[in-house]
Amino acid sequence: LEETFPMIDRTTQMSVSDLKSHDLTQYDAIISTVELDLEQPYLTVSPLLPEHEIAKTSAFLHQQLPQMAVDHLGLNNPDTSPTVTATIDATKVNRKIDAMRESLQLLDAFEVFHTDLTDWSYDIAQHLYHKKITHDLIAVQQLLKERHDKQSFVLSPFRVAIPHFISAHVEIPYIGVWHLATPYDFDEGLTVDTLFCVFLPEDTHLQPLVSEIYSQLSLALDEHNDALTDAEHIEQWIKQSIITLSQQ
Questions:
Q1: 78-87 long-range contacts, CB within 8 A, separation 24+
Q2: pTM of the prediction?
Q3: A GO BP term, please (predicted)?
Q4: Is 90-247 a CATH 3.30.470.20 domain?
């Protein structure tokens, strides 16, 4: 959690039996690997927090921690010492700079277009191959199928799918919104008319950025089913998410 979401600066682990003896109101959010019998809101995730659960975890954290970003920046703490900034080690600074560079690379790769799908995994892999995002079309197609079979990319109940992964087969970051002229049936009657694709290289620094973008997506879809029709607005999400990441 702390690696994926920089806004989390401390976590406390406890067993289910320990929950009854703790004041859970002192915690900003509760995330569990098992179902719980609690009055407080909580989120259940897999122990290793796989990629497909990052979006819903991010959305949950933003719901639970509306002041999280402000507090993290120290804007509500007048006693924050300016010397803290001076003590940041070179490794952390370099990592942040690398993340900013990669963020701008992702922004440059952003595209919105209209298309049709005949074989969704092949069509995506072929597009990435033609744009030189990958040099291994077959491997990317297979990875798409495997990830979807393990956990559907369809963001039910919305007519949106979010194909995404981190892989050594990805050369440079990619993000794109694909509007389908003809709705496509992914599986079990789950029909989508929009794809929101994100693909990152294996050594990426952008997991927190992508979680922020998917969080914005989830919130936007909750408000408007057609939230992905405005390309300029989507680009603003990405820019704002990059700014948020750079401030953490």
A1: none
A2: 0.65
A3: phosphoenolpyruvate-dependent sugar phosphotransferase system
A4: no
Residue 52, both tokens: 């497909």
Place of tokens 């994926």: 4
CA dist list (Å): 49 to 9, 10, 54, 140, 230: 17, 17, 7, 22, 31
Place of tokens 């001076």: 86
pLDDT digits (tens, 9 = 90+) for 79-128: 544 444 444 467 777 877 888 888 888 889 999 999 999 999 999 999 99
Q: In sequence order, what are the residues at sequence separation of 6 or more whose Cβ sits closer than 8 angstroms to the Cβ of residue 184?
A: 117, 120, 191, 192, 193
